[in-house]
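Handout, page 2. Input:
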Amino acid sequence: MTTSPSPYARRARSFPVTVVTDKAALSRFGGRDTAVVHLDAPLHAHEPGTECIACDSRGNVRVLLFELKEKLNRGMVEPFIRVVVDATDARDTKAVADAIVPGRLPAFGLRDHAVARNFHLEEII
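Output:
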């Protein structure tokens, strides 16, 4: 009897993600085999933990990585072998990295599990 893997299990091959927090280091990355995801700063100020949905989606690395994978699946982006997250404008770069590492922050839906299966944190610069 063959059992199928859990839908939450990590894929055999996932995309390495580099989180870049230093603007000078950002220039080292690029090329056709690298996808770059930009985290944008919030549109306006919020109390911690009370971000509106518009501001949250601009800086939510899980949302942006999920959307990148969906675009890849649909052929809307060139194939890539690595991802660079431009977190130079992020207020809390540790939270950006924690969102990529499975189990560090709670998963709020299938999207978060899909990111955990398809991407892994390689380094923070």
